[in-house]
Design a protein that fits this description.
By secondary structure, the chain is mostly beta strands. The protein has helices at about 10-20, 25-30; strands at about 110, 110-115, 145, 155, 170, 215, 220, 265, 270, 285, 305-310, 315-325, 325-335, 340-345, 370-375, 380-385, 410-420, 425-430, 435, 455-460, 465-475.
């Protein structure tokens, strides 16, 4: 039997309703734009009672295209489908860019995305400084870092100086000041590339130690017998501190000054022989007896005295000097003299009588000069004066009463420049003396066979602290080749 009524089974009904409710996905997607919001509802003719979703830039319900895949460079992209202010992917190497942020590798050079390197003079990649740190070479002192591996010094410190590991505000710092043993240090903050370590600190070799002596991985104290040039020695185990311990350097060894040498003569950095020979009886005074009287040699019986212009006062005394084998010397101090100055001197005979050395020497010959050692606390000009019977009142020849008066005490002199270092000075009577003007009658020449005394004079205004040692007479060293230094006899 036929009828106009159709029966719909429940399952079929469900499928029918679902189909009727399913949205038009093409219509919806067409309404999305990567650069804007959804479009308004379309107004085209409805099919089946449903309108298509509209989109900006597309009308009549035609499907839209994603601008990050439209194969063209849009206004907000730096190259085709990439970069710029768009939400598109970042541009690959060799594509156009304006900013580093346009590029996958975050490096835009000359408007082209470029692969960063460790030599591009830009801080990029994982670098902590320009072209250093991270995967690049370690950074130098003072450059940013996040760990010790970023630094050539192997020490990355935070602003408080603490060790930085993974921090974002570290600075490559001196590992020799970190307070811990690290890098190539052999002990805390010393050894290796740091300053050498002190005694009893750990070491690998002599260079790790101040003493330069490393034994069983421990720095040992320096000595004057360790066969190493250390301390302030001028040569191995001699000079410097060792000289003060009776280990001065011999002839030919390296020296920094006279005190480093056994001879007390340092010439162009080498210890050389003392060419001045002093006979035992020629010693005027070595001060080792500790008093002001001259040793009883060759009939010399004088004593040291102080003199001055009366405008101030000075002192003199025998003191300990420790100049090599010499233990004592003469010291004189003075200042504020305003007229002609002050000094010290010693007579050779009683009552300032003239003294003739040749009357007492074994060979009956005159001496040719004097020699002495001297130093001063500060550089000092010293006049060495030699009164003789013609210039000293004791000789009875110069005028002491007028008219004119005061025509004595203008002596034969020589000037020496004394420094803070001990130095030998030798003055030859024949070549090194000059007569001060004023003596009447005018002497005809110095008389080494009629000497009165020897004096060390400092001029007015000088503030001085002078040391003198081993004053002695000398003979000229070479009468054949250097007769100009020898007194004609």
């Amino acid at each position: 039997m036929s009828s106009g009524i159709k029966l719909i089974v429940p399952g079929a009904l469900a499928l029918y309703l679902a189909a009727a409710c399913t949205p038009d996905l093409d219509s919806l997607s067409a309404g999305y734009s990567p650069n804007g919001g959804n479009g308004s509802s379309g107004s085209g003719a409805a099919a089946g009672g449903m309108g298509n979703a509209g989109n900006a830039g597309n009308t009549g319900g035609s499907p839209g295209v994603d601008t990050c895949e439209n194969h063209k460079k849009d206004a907000n992209e730096s190259d085709v489908d990439c970069g710029g202010s768009s939400i598109c992917k970042r541009c690959a190497t060799d594509l156009h860019c304006t900013l580093n942020s346009d590029c996958e590798l975050e490096f835009c050079k000359n408007k082209i995305c470029t692969a960063p390197t460790c030599t591009d003079k830009v801080r990029n990649q994982d670098e902590t400084g320009v072209d250093c740190g991270g995967t690049c070479k370690p950074c130098e002192l003072g450059v940013s870092c996040s760990s010790k591996d970023d630094c050539t010094t192997e020490y990355c410190a935070d602003p408080d100086g603490a060790i930085c590991s993974g921090c974002d505000n570290g600075v490559c710092s001196d590992h020799c000041k970190s307070g811990v043993a690290e890098s190539d240090e052999t002990d805390k903050d010393c050894g290796g590339s740091c300053p050498p370590c002190g005694d009893a600190r750990r070491c690998n070799e002599g260079a790790d130690c101040v003493s330069k002596v490393c034994s069983n991985k421990v720095c040992l104290a320096a000595t004057c017998s360790d066969a190493i040039k250390n301390q302030d020695e001028s040569d191995k185990d001699c000079g410097g501190a060792c000289a003060a311990m009776a280990k001065a350097c011999g002839i030919g060894r390296i020296c920094n000054g006279p005190a480093d040498c056994e001879s007390w003569v340092c010439t162009e950095g080498k210890c050389t022989a003392d060419l001045i020979t002093v006979a035992p009886n020629a010693i005027i005074d070595d001060y080792e007896d500790g008093n002001f009287s001259l040793p009883a040699k060759e009939a010399r019986v004088g004593a040291w005295y102080q003199f001055g212009d009366g405008t101030s006062s000075a002192t003199y005394s025998v003191v300990t000097i420790k100049r090599g084998a010499s233990i004592k010397g003469l010291e004189t101090k003075g200042k504020d003299f305003t007229s002609w100055g002050s000094g010290v001197g010693v007579d050779f005979a009683p009552a300032k009588a003239p003294y003739d050395p040749s009357a007492h020497t074994e060979d009956k010959m005159l001496y040719d000069g004097i020699t002495f050692w001297a130093r001063a606390e500060n550089n000092l000009s010293v006049t060495v004066a030699f009164p003789d019977e013609d210039t000293d009142p004791g000789g009875g020849k110069c005028t002491t009463a007028g008219p004119p008066a005061g025509m004595c005490d203008h002596h034969y002199t020589s000037f020496v420049a004394v420094t803070p270092n001990w130095q030998r000075f030798t003055i030859y009577f024949k070549t090194d003396l000059t007569l001060e003007a004023g003596t009447i009658p005018t002497p005809m020449g110095f008389k080494p066979n009629a000497m009165i005394s020897v004096q060390f004079r400092m001029q007015a205004g000088a503030s001085y602290d002078l040391f003198i040692d081993d004053l002695a007479f000398v003979k000229c060293p070479d009468r054949v080749n250097h007769p100009e230094q020898c007194w004609v006899q």
